[in-house]
TrEMBL record, chains A, B:
UniProt cross-references to Pfam families, sorted A to Z: Peripla_BP_3 (PF13377)
Keywords: DNA-binding, Transcription, Transcription regulation
InterPro entries membership: HTH_LacI, LacI/GalR-like_sensor, Lambda_DNA-bd_dom_sf, Peripla_BP_I
Protein name (database record): LacI family transcriptional regulator
Length: 326, 326
DNA sequence: CTGAAAGCGCTAACAG
DNA sequence: CTGTTAGCGCTTTCAG
């Protein structure tokens, strides 16, 4: 049998160029022999590898897997395979991207960028379709899917205000990351609107999105002369660190201090007390990012979209009215 | 410049065949132009893609990310990229493997196999280097890295026996998965050795490793005429389901019933009460699997190794001595 | 030590 | 509708 005919018969797009019975016989033979297209050879010829690269901040961070799952499932359904690269281990982000490009990826999902990340320019230069997920770059130069960070903080702050809290503190995330900066901005705007803004804002910044860093920042917050009656953390990991800080200070949650988190990551409903938090639909976020990327691949000149997913407040046991005596 | 010379200069293995100054000039030029090898073309020629496939049961399952992280980091350090495929979504496992093979993967890590999985034969037939991680196949036909499931259960049961428990129940995992079957076997052997085996064993099997299935199984266990004073679950997710079941029955942990889990997945130290569990070093497991796979790739005829990682008991607040009255 | 030539498996452009 | 031809970017004999 002749190679081109086989190629045509096996390609859905070119199948119409081949006699139906011949096509069927080829299909049958292919199945019988367990024949599989060599994607590398195909890619070499067509310039499309069927591979998508995903850069993750840390696969083991409990917030990321749902996003990855959303990305991978959607891409997989469209016939793509995903290469995941974890930035955690040493080696520059640039290098990772270059390695991915060397493997011929048709597009990239970046879940790692900082606000002024050099990688953005690098990607723009490479002319590769790229979308950002969860985190944004300052200039909005790349298409993105993220949660409404400011709106989410408003939800949390308004909830605490409604409970009667007047001294509300914030454990902010790293300010070089959009989620950290935007959630802090949202926190401050909400306080201002509630008429609760003060000269020395009750804000402490954590150096990383980790439980340990959250504990440190919360400890600083708790030594302020006017101690907050409620703390809203920039994410759930930080909020768990706040729990740790309260424990070491002998303070009870929510009796002494209410705590709210952000993300509704898995199992925060099982901690004690169950964490009040702002849910963002992480799986949907991943799926939307995949969809956006596929759109860019199909039409690289298309408009640069920025999707924002609506947050939702999940009230649990870690927030309550402040003590009357307080 | 001449392609072959460039190829030689850029390949560490062939560099010695080229004049040092020429090699350096080529390196410099390559860096300046931002030249990157096309892995697809290289793979086509050499038969090695630099890609490794990883089959995951469910990326979003909190137990898996640490394993994946261990695998990916180690492989990455050796110059490989990892394609992860999630079996969760529809589409047969065979199909996934075939797709991975179509992409030319140099090896496969399977974290999904059941005891009598057809995929094992399929992989054996394909002559592709494959290693199993966490779960084993019945015939031990593929090399593997897993925890010592029986030893882990012994640790948990002995701990409860030492506390004075006499009626110890088990929420078993799915019996078609090695972890489910072997942990159950370990549980029963340990009870027998402690002289606590009874006619109708206090064992209920969960249909899946989920919190909901754990709850159902625990509920069945709690309606037995002689209710257990302690329950050891086949994994932490199941143990959280046991917590749910106790809550719906109005029973307190550990006052009424002690609970032990397995795996020490992230944040089980934060639930209430903090879960006593058996820790398995999941990151190490992933790393060992990667190392084993690399060994198979280098020497496919090498001996079929089966690594077993030692478990460690982590005692927290969910286990205590039984009530004297009980 | 370096150049020339062939080919990995596939597809696309061009005949027939 | 099908066969022929060429070539994607690389490596690897084989000659010089």
């Amino acid at each position: 049998m002749h190679p081109s005919t086989v190629s045509r018969a096996l390609s859905p797009a070119m199948k119409h160029l081949v006699a139906a019975d011949v096509a069927n016989r080829i299909q049958a033979a292919a199945n019988a022999l367990g024949y599989r297209l060599n994607m590398a050879a195909k890619g070499l010829r067509t310039g499309r590898s069927g591979l998508i690269g995903v850069l993750a901040p840390d696969i083991a961070d409990p917030g990321f897997p749902p996003v990855l799952s959303g990305i991978a499932d959607h891409l997989h359904a469209q016939g793509y395979a995903t290469i995941v690269a974890d930035v955690g281990s040493e080696g520059s982000e640039q290098d990772l991207v270059d390695r991915l490009i060397a493997h011929g990826v048709d597009g990239l999902v970046l879940a790692t960028v900082t606000l002024d990340d050099a990688i953005v320019t690098h990607c723009l230069d490479s002319a590769l379709p790229v979308v950002l997920v969860n985190r944004l770059d300052r200039g909005a130069r790349l298409p993105s899917v993220a949660g409404d960070d400011e709106g989410g903080m408003r939800l949390a702050v308004d909830h605490l205000v409604a409970l009667g809290h007047k001294r509300i503190g914030h454990v902010a995330g790293p300010q070089e990351i959009s989620t950290g900066a935007r959630r802090r901005a949202g926190f401050e705007a909400s306080l201002r609107e509630a008429g609760l803004a003060t000269r020395n804002a009750l804000v402490e910044t954590a150096s990383a999105y980790t439980r340990a860093a959250g504990r440190e920042a919360a400890l600083r917050l708790l030594t302020r002369k006017s101690r907050p009656t409620a703390i809203v953390a920039a994410n759930d990991l930080l909020a768990l660190g706040v729990y740790d800080a309260l424990a070491t200070r002998g303070l009870a949650c929510p009796d002494d201090v209410s705590v709210a988190g952000h993300n509704d990551m898995p199992f925060v409903d099982m901690v004690s007390p169950p964490l009040t938090t702002v849910r963002i639909a992480q799986r949907d976020m991943g799926e939307a990012a995949a969809r956006l990327l596929l759109g860019r691949i199909a039409n690289p000149a298309g408009s640069r979209e920025h999707l924002m997913l609506p947050p939702r407040l999940i009230i649990r046991g870690s927030t309550a009215a402040p003590r009357p005596a307080s």
